[in-house]
Structures are given as C-alpha cells and as structure tokens.
Amino acid sequence: MKLFGLIADNILRNPVRSLLTILGTMVLVFVVTLVWSILDFLNAATATRTSNFKAIVTERWRLPSQMPYSYAATLKEGAAREPGHIRPRDAMCWSFYGGSLDREKRTRENSLFAFALEPPKLLTMMDELDSLPPDQHREFAEVVRRLEQNRQGIILGRQRLEAIQKRVGDRIKIYSLNYRGIDLEFEIVGLFPPGRYDNSAAMNIDYLTAALDAYQRENGQPHPLADKSLNLVWLRMQDTAEFDRIAQQILTAPYYSNPAVKIETASSGIATFLEAYRDLLWGMRYLLAPAILVTMALVISNAISISVRERQVEFAVLKVLGYRPFHILSLVLGEAILVGSLSGLVSAALTFSVVNYVVGGIKFPIAFFGAFFIPSQALLWGTIVGAATALAGSFLPAWSACRVKVTDVFARVG
C-alpha cells in the first residue's frame, strides 16, 4: 500500500508534465480507437457467416453490374425450375437511379441517388431495417406502406433531407445522370430511421419501370439502359448448404447467358468491393496503427526518463531505507502504467460517447456503409493499449532507476 501511495504522490509531484503526458496519450489512443473501430467493423462485415446470411447475384464480367430486369423474376426464385430445386427464404432486387435536383448545376448537396426496389423488402431484406425495435418498426412500416401506395413516393435519409433543404411532404424533381432523358418527380413520403441510411434514398421500382416504358412509347425505341436496369439481386439463405444448392441452380440455368451472372455471399461481395480500398486499409492496419503505438511508447518513455533523471537522489535514499531494486522497478513502472491505462480508458470512453451519441458515427462512406460506430470493446482496447505502451516505453527508464548505485549518487551530491 505504501508503494501505491508513492506512485500517486510521484504522479502529482509534477502536475504539468503528468497532464501533458496524459493529454498526449489520450490523443493517440483516440486515433487508434477510430482506426481499429473501422477495421473491426469491416472485418465483421467481410467475415463468412454460416447461417441466415445473404447472397448477391450480379453480372459476371462487368462493373457496375447491369442485367436485364427480365432476370429478376427467376433470380428471386433461385432459378428453381425442377421439382427437386429449392428457393431462397427471401429476395430483393436493386436498381440504382440518381441525379441532381438542379438541371444545370450539380453539387454534392443537391445530388440524390436512390435504391429502386419493391417497398416491402425494406422491412425484410435491408440490413438493420429488418431488425428495428418494435416502436421504430411500426413507424417505419407506415412509411413503407405510403411508398408502396404512392408510386411517385421517395424515402430519404435524415441528413440527405437536410442537405437538399426539403421536408416530408414536399415534391422534388430529379434530373437523372444515369438514366439520361428520364427525369422523375417525387413526393417525399417519409424518412429512414436514424443511423446507417442517413444519406440514402429509396424509391418504388414500379415508377422506374413505368418511366422506361413511357420513354419507349414516346421515342419509338427503348432507353439505352432498358435491358440493363437490374443492378443487384439479394437472396437470403438459411445455411451454406442451401447457398451451394441455389448457386448451382443459378449457374446452370439456361436463362442467364447474355450477360452471364455470378453469385457470391454478401461478405465476399463486400470484400471484393473493398479491393479498391486495399492499399488504404493496409496502410491503416500495418503502418498507421503501429506508428501511433510506437509514438505513444516514445512519449511515455520520454516523460518517465526525465522523471528518473530528476529523482536519482530519491532512488538512492530509498535503497538506503531498504527498498530493493524490484520495489523501485515496480514504482516507476507503476507510475507509467497507471497514467497510460487511465488515459487510455478515459480517451476511449470519451471517443465512444462523442462518436456514437453526439456525432452520430464516423462518416467514412465506403461500400454501403454510411457511418461507423465505436464498439463497446473499445473501452478495453483503450485501457490495454495505454497500459501496454506505457509498460513498453517505461521499462528501460525503470531499469536504469533500479540500477542506481548509492555510492555514485552521494559522491556526486557531496
């Protein structure tokens, strides 16, 4: 207990240095927490699941995927065509429609891209929307019902609604960028629940298909994307055995020859998409995070080294009073570990609270993720990182402190 008292007294002896060390450690733990949270989220998203997972059907040889919408009916059935074939548990088709609210000037604020889909599938197939709390589910189900009844309806994310400076019930017109010549008017019928889809939008697929038919009637020829309007098909599988059987059904079906299709698990599809960010993620994992940890160790090592040099006489006196080298080693290491672990814990707790509840997530929009949140285990990461780097950075100064020779110290004093 006396040792713990000495550790606390020594930390408070030079409050300015201790405070600067704490603040430096907190800043570095903050950055590490953000980096590891993003990497942890992506690892979870690309991890292979063995039950109740989704598969993605896309065009085999081209990105972005563009398939005829005639594929949709059979793909939603898993290309089941014989008595022994099985069907997916659920399915959803995606088309992408996007453009600008200003015909002449396109900006980030007035741009809007929507998923064109069957409205009921928002509640059964969209990640996170299929597991809403009961009160949010009832509220959003009413929004989905309005979208299903109003073919010209559109659902917006809260940040996207704020960016275009509109309100629920307003009408907007989108001048399309990908479907040139098909500019559509919408009524904003509701909002996505806060979170993942804050910058997203969803429209009724029937509105897009009707617009493509109208284009053909008015122009005497089909739109260039009329046979390329299906971008993705999502299928829900019970387990890997079911996935293997349905994948075989699709790949051997005679319906999908021009263009050919491929099927992969959602985690595999996300991993493929993230290939474009491979160098960035590799640098975050193997360069940025280790560099921050080394910097933390150096910051603490520098602070402890200064403290050890100033306390040479104190350590000599402690030895005279009967303290063993192990006690002095523990004293110095204890100071560093206490500062590092508490700084790490406080930094991680503040990061968790501010990012998740104040900022609303880390805005790093890649793949279909709007924001990344700090997991609760970050509190453990911060504590361990702070303590571990403090231990690594303070070991050599602590070793030199316990090796102090009493005769040499008092000879210099005399």
What's the order of the H and E elements?
Answer: HHEHEEHHEHEEEHEHEHHHHHH
Number of domains: 2
The parts where pLDDT drops under 50 for at least 5 residues are: none
Count of discrete alpha- or pi-helical segments spanning 4 or more residues: 14
Strand order of the largest sheet: 2-3-7-4-6-5
Structural class: alpha+beta
Q: Mean of residue pLDDT?
A: 87
Major sheet: size, sense and barrel closure?
6 strands, mixed, barrel
Give the C-alpha Rg.
30 Å
Shape: elongated
Distance between the termini: 33 Å
Beta-strand residue percentage: 5-15%
Helicity range of the residues? 40-55%
Number of strands: 9
Q: Key terms for this structure?
A:
single chain; 414 residues; alpha+beta; 2 domains; 6-stranded mixed β-barrel; 9 strands; 15% strand; elongated
Task: Write structural notes for this entry.
The protein has helices at residues 2-13, 15-46, 71-75, 121-124, 134-149, 158-163, 205-219, 240-252, 266-273, 278-310, 312-320, 325-359, 378-402, 406-413; strands at 51-59, 90-100, 111-117, 153-156, 171-176, 184-191, 201-204, 232-239, 261-265. It is of the alpha+beta class and 414 residues long. The chain folds into two domains: 2-46 and 277-413, no CATH class; 93-231, no CATH class. It has a six-stranded mixed β-barrel. A hairpin with a 7-residue loop joins strand 5 (171-176) and strand 6. The longest helix is centred in the C-terminal third of the chain and has 35 residues, at 325-359. 34% of the residues are buried.
